[in-house]
Batch of 3 targets.
Target 1
Amino acid sequence: MLNKKLITYTSRLPFHSPWFIIIIFSVLGLIGILNHSMWRDELNPWLIVRDSESLGDLIANIRYEGHPLLWYFSLGLLRKIVDNPIIMQIFHLAITVVSVTLFCLYSPFNYQQKFLFSFGFFPFYEYLLISRNYAFSMLFVFAFCTVFASRKRTYTYLAILLGLLANSSAYGLLVSFSLSLTLLAEFCFDSEHRQHYFSQSQKYDLFLSIVIIIFSFILCIYIITPPTDSYLHGGLNNGWLTKLDIRHLLRSVNRIFGAYLLIIPQHKKWLDLIICAIIALLMVILTLIKLSKKPVALLFYIIGSSVIFAFTYFRFIGMPRHFGHFYLVLIVALWLGSYYQESLVLLNKFYVRPNSIIFIHKWHHIALMLILYVQFLGGIYSFSRDLVIPFSAGRETVQYIQKAGLANEVIVASRDANMAPLSGYLNRKLYYPEIKKMGSFTLFKSGRQDVEETEILSQINSLLKNQDEQKKILLILNRKLNVNRNDLKIVPIKDFQRGWVDTERYYLYWVDEA
């Protein structure tokens, strides 16, 4: 009797409910994001919003970043609520939690797959803990998939989501463009869908939807197009690749491998590049055959993967936050496929045997589960590492400065681009030798140039001489000082080297006239 009651009670526990995943994800996410020490890529946008003098100035500054407006305008609204970058982290957590909620409640994947995906590398680490605009990609594509069936009576909802996606990041623009082409192809070639839509839609729905998408694309392209004096636009300083480079081609293919299996092979080792590229292509082929019975989903997978791959090869090889969009394209393609009945049109054209398709589907399932398990292990490892090792030493450095009563001192900080965490957490401007004045965020444009240590000390010497009263200067560097001057007294204070990002370990010095 007791055993039966225990079994009955246990069966009522919501362990196999999507809400169990969502609640655990939310709780762990809150713990993780409050523990996370933000780095320059997170805080530089916050500083741009904080210290831009007007709306026009804000838009002009954003154009040097290589990102559209949406994230910056969101931060502007958040600052009106709380003038502390922690609200940016809470907002970012909310974006990811909503994304995972949509995925768990509405996607066609089974419970095990939903669990593995939710705690995988991209949702549980890259697009959760690191507060960047890329989390919007996951939110808007999952929202798109959730309301995808609404296209039978209106395209307006999808158009709005595509517009928001396009204005979230350059990669969001690529995915949005791919989804738009997919919708266009379905509308043009599926006469049954087209007739069904016209019988239920409002008169101006199609026109309005097209206008929304086109306007959103134009706005995004205008903002991310660099000003003429930008020399490191969005980190892209190598221009466009216009020739065939086999090694670079393999590296680009291996960004798909990295997106799926989280391993980036050594680009100097040909064998590693070739083996990983072959594995990546096999996974792509399996997915193509898997989606062959769902032509619309297949089309999106081909367009989405191809567009991102082209950008990866011709323009920017990318980091995990960038090529993670290959992974999102895979998940979205499988999700969209659930909206369609199976079609044998493509298979009949290629004379493929049904038994062969069953065999391929089994191997695709194995490959998908391998991807999800690898993503899960990567997510748990990366999330746990961030709990133990600070991502940046910036927050710890600021805590020391505040505790030691140094927050109001004259602070000279270099390299400027690596000092955003200090300016953000201190909520004040610092003197940057790279621009020879007070600053907070960094824009790579004319008027700014990197400086050597001798130039830094020379500027400090000038600052000391121009002060009305004798006062020491607090010098903060992101590398150890290796030069000296006879007319300056330089005393090391403390260093902070405990950080995952090796360019954000800080060294503090007192500098005074000798």
Target 2
Amino acid sequence: MSKLFNLFLFIALLAIGFSSCSDDDDDDNIFINSAETLPTNIAFEDINLKGGEISGDLTWTKPVNTSELSAIVIYTSNDGTNKETKLKEIPVNDEKYTLTGINYAKYLLLVPKNKNNVEGNTFAKIELKDEVGNNVVTDLSFDDTDYAKGKIGGKLTWTKPTGIVNLSKYIIYTSEDGTTKKDKIAEVDTDIEEYIVESRSMTEFFIVVATDLENKEVEDFAKTEVKDAYEVSGIYILNSGKQGHNNANMSFYDLTAKTLSTKVFEAANGISLGDTGQDIIVYGTKMYIAVYGSGVIFVTDKQGKQLGKIESVKNGKAQQPRGFTTHDGKVYVTYFDGNLAKIDTTKMEIEAQVPVGRNPEYVRVANNNLYVANSGGLDYNNPIGYDKFVSVVDIATFKETTKIPVVINPDKMAVDSEGDIYVISNGDYKTIPNTLQRIDAKTHKVTNVGNATWMNINNDKLYIIYSQYDANWNQVITYSVYDTKTEKIITDKFITDGTVVNKPFSITTDPVNNYVYIGTSDYTNNGDMYIFSAEGKLINKFDTGGISPAGAYYASWIVK
């Protein structure tokens, strides 16, 4: 019996021993922490602009009581209560942890851990905000002001994002497809909204992408398509055609590409130019084309697209336009019925008319006056004969103030920088030859200069063609240059490279390139256009695409 009692006593004591040991273990695994063991002043700002990810510095103030602590353990949590993903254990005296590209969670939990590696039963937390950011610039555009074809240069502009979040800079790239970045051309600060692109080869797109504070490019970007703005410059050639055949047309010669486009008016408008092209003038953004036989003035843009049409009737008859000039926002045109008309360039209609002389041809502006050459050409076989006056019309009152007597049948005119007026009178084609005269700007005194059939002025150099027939009916042609400053002939051999130009029909000049254009005609076949340098050397020669080229008229515009 006593042995049995001893056995029960031993078992009881053993059980008590095991129970005591188990209680000790539970005490070691329980960390009842207090507010003094929790981090305070927790802060975090997401600098990752990609939605669904967070990056940035998590900071805090270490607990007041760290004597029993070894670390702070950082967890993610979506409910602010349960620990989910353990991110890092931080030494207890540290106060910062940097997150990089972590999947977004709504909370971060900061859990103290004691020296027995036991985590506390309470923790500190911070609610997170996923800053996706407005990181794409808006209103991105590029204006190409480098007008060389195939080259671009100019201002790239944009509007910076509103509510910018943690952007460090913008990077500008070229792109050929609007998606793939190609050449990196610049990095700019985020408070800047423009960048000057230096002249470079053409690209199809510009891309502007922002970087975050880690200097990583964000996924989204802005793009703009690049349009190559380039200048087209050349000459319109007005082919008069044969009178009564309704075959006037226009060609355009591109001085850069050295290419000729024929029938450009027809191509642009789907209609014929009409009968007998007479004159063209380019003014402002418009071009005015006088078609004499058809009695119409076409108003087009510089590419030949019709904007309007002026058909004027006076005393029951259609008026036939001859020659143009411009002044102070107005275009002036002579009508062969004896009138000078003023055109309102905005309304594209006749504003006023004033009677001048018979069958006026050229009109030019000088000294606040309009000078009109009255040919009287239709009266060549009548007793009254040719006209012999240049009308002077005051621009302000638009009234004729005087007539200046000149050699009969005045036609072509030019004005130099001093306001002197040069007039070619065609004479009677028999005993009175083609005569070049100068009208003094101040006194209106007329002086004979020599002989001329066609002329054009550029930089105070008068380029003159005189065509006559000798006793054997051989055509004798001279090409001269007259200096209007010194009032002397510089040379009577303008063409210096031996080029032979037969059957000249017109001469015009280019004020930009200083080229001289000579058109030829046999009145039956297409004419030729010769382009000479100011030194008299041939630059090019080509078929004009029509009969009797009346002149070459310089025009330029920007294609965007």
Target 3
Amino acid sequence: MRTDVRRAYHIARADIIARVRSRKLLIFFAVVIYVGYLINSGSFGVFYTISNGPNVNGALTSHLVGLNAGMAGSAVMLLAGFYVLRGSIERDERHGHLPLLTSSQTSKPVYLLGKLLSNIAVGVLAAAVLAGAAVVNHSIYGVGATDPIATSWPVFVMVVPLTIFVGAVAMLFGTINVLAGTLGRIAYFFGAIFLLSAQSMRPETAVPSAVPTTVKALDIVGLTLAYDLTFESIQAAVPGFESSFANFGTGGSNAQTFRYEGGPWPAWFFAQRLGTVVVGLAVTLVAALPFNWFQATDGVVGKVRQRLPLDEARPETASNPPTPTDTTDSAVSTPSVGDDVTIPPVTRRGAGGFRRVLTMEIRRLLRGQPRWWYLGAGLLILVPTVIALTSGGTEGAARGLLSLVAVWPLFVWSQIGSQTARHGIRPQVLTSEYPVGQLVGEWIAGCLITMVVGAGAFAIAVATGGPTALIGVTGLIIFPPSLALAAGLWTGSPRLFEALYLGLWYIGPLNGGFVADFAGVTARGTSLGVPVVFAAVGIGLVVVAAQTRRVYMNLG
């Protein structure tokens, strides 16, 4: 037992050292600090909506700032922590560490618990950074005396247990092949959104004592907790207040104000956080089942695929002995290579020009996608085209199809920008004939694939919305590949792009937020030219990415 604890500790220590050297963790902490500033400057926090009246905001006391910081930290950990915490197993596999660990007699549960300890350390550091920023900012912007304890401890109680759950899910996804890539990141995003939306199951007229137990158990961010803690303070400050949903954001400048000075936290929240920890530990142990030392992303799914006729080529086993042709002496079947054999010199490195680079980039982006993705893309092309040619479609159908087109090519866009770094071919690209052209070729290839996949939906949008619908089409074609190019080039990974893009897609095209409607789904966003702004931003990102590539060339 003691030996296993030491092994888990050293695995966690090595992983933390590797994380600290990564820019990704520094960017994450910078985001956490900025969130802390927004909270303490009054730009962000818990508020309540009142029918036929102004919203209700809380004065920035130390206790409310601590609650706001804990909620903000929980939201950041839930939505962005998954993309930061995952990847440690893949890193060990990429560097060849996993086979070495088997010789140390480290069991899979001990190894994964060590990785979980590293994730917990990241959560503790994030909570410490957020709590420190909250204390400093409250001394500047806050109301009343600054109480470091009241401001800090809610952050740790709310964020660290959630980190255990998120980190465990990230490890589980990393051990299952089908969830180790873009599909897993999309699946997690929608799962996180489901947990956030679960708070809407609470009846709006329910007082804290009448909130259903299911809603309390799913209070992953702390909205129900905030409602429970601040309810009496709001009743004292706002006559006639009965109940309302707790929201997290900006409540407006004309809002009424309540003053929360702290109080005992409900026992159900501590039970909920304890349950979150237990579930996280259980998920970690479950992740040991599909985890494979020598191919960490195969696991159970890979074993099933070996037993089903899904692969075109099956590995040879002892039951399939080689044929006599396979055992023919290589000296007889293949001519020997002697000194008189020469390799023709390469006289034209740029044969084929940029067109060949673009063709290769299109083939590279499309190659390796799962069969169901091609099936979905084919249906997304065919069905809207048939609708456009027959009935012309409706505005509702056009909005739904545009929202789907805005997310289906995500599997292709995710590869743009980061492939050279992930595959270790950056030096070869930088010394090639078209170092910047390869980058531009990636971007154009992503735009062309988007045009093809969305052709039918674009036709319906133009048929129902007129020529102005082309504004949205422009934004949808240009912006996503541009963001993928810049984020992938700067980070060497698709995770930043996927996290940013899924957030924009969820707010804009999916839910109709016009300020993020880069696809022209909403009439207001199209009339204000929001897609054009996103298209212009996309062009700017491509220019900046090209300049970055030139800098790499000069440094190399």
